[in-house]
Amino acid sequence: MQCYLEILKKYAVFKGRESRRTFWYFVLFNCIFSLIIYFIDKILHSDILSTFYSLAVFLPHLGASIRRLHDINKSGWWVLLSFIPLAFFLIIIPLALVSKSAFFGGLILILLLSLACSIWLIVLEATPGTPGENKYGEPV
What we know:
This protein is mainly α.
């Protein structure tokens, strides 16, 4: 829980490094809180709590991901891997007007691309940090 609160306190810090332990504990507690809020929303027949929670943790999660990538001596721009499928989706939408089979083929391509990008980002974030100082600073 301490790791979760530590990342929330640095909600808009995109410089420096984040340890693997702190990052993954944040992800764990974020998943637990998301599930709890999801079930509360279902009981209330609403999506408002989930929406607010997602918006509230977007910047802290983005900052933690960037700092985690800095810890393995990678640029924070690698986070943009998660937006590649969205760009392809916007390109494939016009295919729905031309052909349904081309559209569904494009959707399958997007799903595979999304899966590949997600797996690669998880691999990067699970990689042990650079020992000692790197171009992003001292280890945490």
